[in-house]
Amino acid sequence: MSSPSQINGQTQKTHMDIYQKAITAFNNGDIQGAHLACVDILKANPNFHQSYHLLALINIQIHQYGKAGELLKRAIKISDTTKYRIELAKTYSLLGISDGVISIANTIEIKKLNSFYELDTLGVILSRVEQHETALQCFEKAIALKPTPEILYNFAVSAKFCGQHQAAQTALNKALKLKPDYHQAHFALADLTQDKAIDTHIVQLTKMLEGTPNAPIDVTLHLSHALAKEYEKQKNYGLAFETLLKAKSQKAKQLPYNRQDDQRLFDGLYKSIENLNKQSNRNTGPNSQRPIFVVGMPRSGTTLVERILSSHSQVTSGGELEDFSLLLKHASQSTGNSVLNHNLYQDSSKVDFTKVAKAYLARTAHIGNNQGKFVDKLPFNFFYLPFIRQAFPKAKIICLLRNPLDTCVGNFRQLFSINNPHYNYTHSLEDCAWFYQQFEKWIQTWSEFDPQGTKLLEYERLTKNPQQYVPELINFCGLDWQTQCLQIESNTAPVSTASKMQVRQPINQKSIGSWKRYQAYTTDIEAIFGQ
Question: Is 0.85 surpassed by the pTM of this model?
Fold first, then answer.
């Protein structure tokens, strides 16, 4: 007769055999089979933590991130491993819960990690929450284990954000030797090439674009934007613009821009002001002045203002945070897959803004160790201003305004998130101009509604006379004057926006009027703004 220990051992072996079959099914794309196998194991043995882990991976694959997180917590309760913690941090990252990511990451000693997968995964997660210096430690150790093109690219991106341009360029060149058609690496490299390397890169990019006319549009966009950057360094602005026109027209056919969708958003904003005017107590959130919201059109100088403010000893950069929008989406129970849609303005009556504000402050407590103020610099937060004001009655809002032609050309020239529909307007100059008009009309209306809490700041005036406008900006935020706020080139904090190269220079006017380089293509939008 078998002893209890023998029976338990046989049962464990049986469960492990079933689990291995579940792993095989998962790897072969049989999600349902893997799921059923894990459930069967857990019915017999609720402490089989491997099944919770695999179920979590299944839920991540079908975008059920919240459920995945709960499953990983159960696995960790049974067997607290670094692997499970990193997977939980990954789910928090996918959910946009940056404080959860950082909280878990702080419990992991990078020097003790020896798994390439864990190092790479943790590095990517950390980079998503703007922890680029710590991410570099993960990538460096992963490269020592296995220098794949992808890990070299990941390292280069974080190195570039940290201002380590030579290290980034070296890593990208190594990645391209291993994988010459790595389009993201070519795009990243175009920020860094100089002298003869520019000519060499132009030849490579041209051959790749001509040799793959039917390449996926994301490949074409990355290569075309890289080529345009290289042409611009040679002051060949006509070729640069033609290259972008060709690629962006292809993207516009695949994912056309519908002005009516964005018009609904702007209409919802005006309706929100009407609703606020009807409320006897329109500001319902706490009195915290910790967040400073910097908003505006992309490429309008928002990163410059963030660098100025975060140069102050009592201000930390939070980067482009999505926490407020995600919390508002959840609180409003707004329908639709997109975080931002016109239903939000109809559903906001359900929102408890005090709860939203408290949750936002909790999520951002890690920024600056919950001391002083921090900058939330998500440009499109201008779509949330009525809600920000209700959640934070005393928070300061700074909105950048820039010459419409510089802004529109800057938006057209930038490669934003390829599959984010909110950037579809950037596929044509005319749509950029229309969008700018709607933005400017809205922000002028908002500033009249909220004159005490919102400051409109013109990029041209700020850069022309920083000695006047920077102190005014610091004073508006309720801060004492510190001279280092004029010396943003001394600010060593990582920068992950499109302005990562420019903002490491002193405040200057080099980019003002840059639209004139492309004047052969701006006749139509000049007429729009001329009217």
Answer: yes
| Number of residues assigned to the chain | 531
Residue 27: what residue type?
A: N
Spatial CB neighbours of 416, under 8 Å, sequence gap ≥ 6:
298, 423, 426
* Assigned token pair, 65: 């991130």
| Phi and psi angles of residue 260, each rounded to the nearest 5 degrees, phi first | -60, -35
Summarised one tens digit per residue, pLDDT across range 95-151 is 989 889 999 999 999 999 999 999 999 999 999 998 999 999 999 999 999 999 999
- Whole-number Å distance between alpha carbons of 422 and 420: 5
Q: What are phi and psi of 294, to 5 degrees?
A: -110, 120
Taking 50 as the pLDDT cut, the residues of the chain under it are: 1-9, 500
Helical H segments across 286-403, by residue range: 302-310, 323-332, 343-347, 353-363, 385-391
Which residues touch 361 (CB under 8 Å, ≥6 apart)? 286, 288, 290, 291
Q: Are 348 and 291 in contact (CB under 8 A)?
A: no
| Radius of gyration of the CA atoms of the chain, in A | 25
DSSP 281: S
Written as one letter, the residue type at 458 is E
Give CA angle at 411 (248, 197), nearest 5°: 75
So what's the pLDDT on residue 5?
40
Q: Helix (H, G, I), strand (E, B), or coil: what is residue 397? A: strand
